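pinned: reference chain
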Amino acid sequence: MKKGTKLFLGIILASMMLGTTVLASTQGFEFYLVPERRVSTGNYPKADAEQRAYVSTTYGDLNSGDKVWFRVRYANENFATVTKSTNIYTRMTLSYLKWVPAGGAYHLNGQQDTACKQVCTVGGNWTP
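pinned: its structure tokens
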């Protein structure tokens, strides 16, 4: 084998051995929402330094008159992301308000809009 080929293969092998994959820590949630009351998941660590959190609402009994607000908070309850709302089953991206490293503890908040007068359930997955 030529010297250049050996060097190239050595670099490829070394990068494969040193490379690591960080998997996001996706968590399930199910919120029983009462008008004007906030509910939260437990605190979960952020597995990466991506500056976005993801929320997917996949089941429940939402109807067109419901509006549910989602936001990620730090373990100390301070706001970590922007707030977004939905009344359908969808995937949302929540941007962090400032740079956050991997490893911190975060929880997802859900709250029904004050205009809603009935309870509802919504569930799905979220990734800090």
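why pinned: The first strand starts at residue 27 and ends at 33. The chain has one helix and nine strands.
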